[in-house]
Amino acid sequence: MSTLSRNILLSLAISGLIIGTVVYAINYLNQQRVAQLNTIEDQLSTDTLSVETQYSLLANAPCEDFAISSSSEGTSLSQEVSNLGDKLQYTENRLGGTDPQVIQLKNQYTLLEIRDYLLTEQLAKTCHTSPVVVLYFYSNAGDCKDVCDRAGYALSYLHQTYPNLRVYSFDYNLKIGALKTLETLEKVQPSFPAFVINHKQYYGFTSLTDFESNLPSSLFATSTATTTTKTQK
Amino acid sequence: MNVEVLTYPFLFIAVFFEVFLLVTFISSPARARRAQKLSEKTPNVAVIVPCWNEEKTIKGTIDSLLALEYPKDKFSLVLVDDGSTDDTARVMDSYADNSQVTVIHQKNGGKHTAVNAGAAAASDAEFVGCLDADSFVEPDALREIIGYFDNPKVAAVTAAMSVHEPKKWIERMQHADYIHGITLRHVISSLNGLYVTPGPFSFYRRTTLLELGGFQKGHQTEDLEMALRIQRGGYIIENAPRARVYTKTPLSVPALIKQRTRWTTGFLRNVVYDYRDLVGNPKYGTLGLIMLPLGLVANVSGILMFVVILYQIGRNIVNTYLVTRGIPLSYLFTPHFHALSWFYLPLTGVILLSIITLTGAVTTILLGKHISKTPGNLFIGIVTYVLFFGFIAPFWLMRALFDLATGTRRAWR
């Protein structure tokens, strides 16, 4: 075999090895992301259960006792749910919305959000507070790409600017019973983006200013604006 | 459709070529060439210096040639003034009293006619070399070259080019590119795959040069056409990696694009029109199977990669604007430190393969500096090469492809 032939074959083999290593590395990184998401979700699931249990234990206690003992963990839980949302969105962009692992993670994330939302509602009812809650329904079926991206970014901005604003985002098309029940209870129609603000439905997104006009003025009066906290879609 | 997918075949070819270079670099033919000693032989040689309006650099070129470490009775210089309109002729004539120097004045006929006139005049020389009048040589360069002619099938030997005293960033960038070329020529010549014998200090066996009919216009790249004719004739083109020669380079981006457009168009016209039979032809080994096909592919891939990158950047800017419009700028420009986590590392196949290809290119540059023993610091050159070369090159590639498609002929200068 000539030097040329030998070097061509050797180079092809090494190039194949390099490409294979690159593909493996990318795949490994994606799997590590999924593994981290699984770990976070498991931890959050435990944390949620802990807060729910605390709530049951303190159900008959004065509101202040509940607030003191659970607010710290509850706030931290909401923040972690928010961080998880960011990471999940990034992973979905990398692996695609149809990836079975992504769908599975989104299902679990959605359940966590719903549980966090119910806790927030229960706490508000018990303690007679009025948190501003936005339920945001988007679609990845290709019928809301640009507008939903805008709406999601605007909500991230609002959440970070007004920490008292609670935002829960849901992929409308996920096939989970709890989500479908929530959609039915809140009477959400499949027109995107859809928002439920304190149990009232809004559809479409034109601008940040228009959207802000739908939020209760109490949010702007009681919140301390900040841009240093974490984001959530 | 993800447009990045279009780049994968070209990135694979780029990785393959880099690997091929490194594998061939450590192969025995290349190692043998690096181990070659200075030649003790001193056959008659002549260096032809074709000039057209080179009044500022011609003196330095002649002086560097006269300082070559070579017996004076075996070395002659043929200065050919190709109808200069500046003071070049007068500078040349000032050397007419030197017994080693022959001065020829002719009407402007193009570089190939000037070199042919010089080769005809150097009748005593066994080997004739060319040196552009904007280039300078190291004293031992000729002795480094002569040894490669021991093989009678060797028709030409090329030198190791780099940039003369690079100062501006654009000179340093080209310096890195030239040093990259030193490794490339060294490696590819070990498998006889060179397709150009550059103007700065390439030498030819005079009998073979005349037998092949001397230089032709060659679509304004007479050195490339000559090399292809040598290869088609079944001869060998060698490279002397320690024969250092320094050349002047364009000092502005438009001038660089103009120069490289001429080179690239010359390559395309010669290969596509006149030497198509060599492409993919196993008879021509490395040249036919690797260098010419990949040279053609490189033109297309350089443009495609550039377009894809521009498209991606443009799309990201538009998307970012559409998604973030209406949001206060103070929020947009607030650093989001959570994004520094490994989780958000934006590694894709394209980015990783691009990094690998660039690493290969930088390695090739460092090897070039090492084997040629070229002095100077390459840090700025490598940085500017990595940052800018890939974004400037597509302009001459596109222009050359346009000229080829439309039959546009541009002036030399």
Fold topology:
The complex is a heterodimer of chains A (233) and B (413).
Chain A: H1 3-57, H2 63-95, H3 100-127, E1 132-138, H4 145-161, E2 165-171, H5 177-185, E3 194-197, E4 200-203, H6 208-212, H7 217-222
Helix pairs in contact in A: 1-2, 1-3, 2-3
Chain B: H1 8-25, H2 28-34, E1 45-51, H3 58-66, E2 75-82, H4 88-93, E3 101-106, H5 111-121, E4 127-130, E5 135-137, H6 141-146, E6 154-163, H7 169-189, E7 203-205, H8 206-211, H9 222-232, E8 236-247, H10 253-274, H11 285-324, H12 329-332, H13 349-372, H14 379-406
Helix pairs in contact in B: 1-7, 1-11, 1-13, 7-13, 7-14, 10-14, 11-14
Structure description:
The complex is a heterodimer of chains A (233) and B (413). With 233 residues, chain A is an alpha+beta fold. Chain A folds into 2 domains: 1-129, Methane Monooxygenase Hydroxylase, Chain G, domain 1; 131-233, Glutaredoxin, CATH 3.40.30.10. Helices cover 66% and strands 9% of the residues of chain A. Chain A is built from 7 helices and 4 strands; from the N terminus they run αααβαβαββαα. In chain A, strands 2-1-3-4 form a 4-stranded mixed sheet. In chain A, helix 4 links the parallel strand 1 (132-138) and strand 2. In chain A, helix 1 (3-57) packs antiparallel against helix 2 (63-95). Chain A is elongated, with a radius of gyration of 22 Å. Chain B has a domain at 28-250: Alpha-Beta Complex (Spore Coat Polysaccharide Biosynthesis Protein SpsA, Chain A). Chain B contains 14 helices and 8 strands. Chain B has helices at 8-25, 28-34, 58-66, 88-93, 111-121, 141-146, 169-189, 206-211, 222-232, 253-274, 285-324, 329-332, 349-372, 379-406, and strands at residues 45-51, 75-82, 101-106, 127-130, 135-137, 154-163, 203-205, 236-247. In chain B, helix 11 (285-324) packs across helix 14. The longest helix of chain B has 40 residues, at 285-324. Chain B is elongated. The mean pLDDT of chain B is 93. The interface between A and B is large, with 38 and 37 residues.
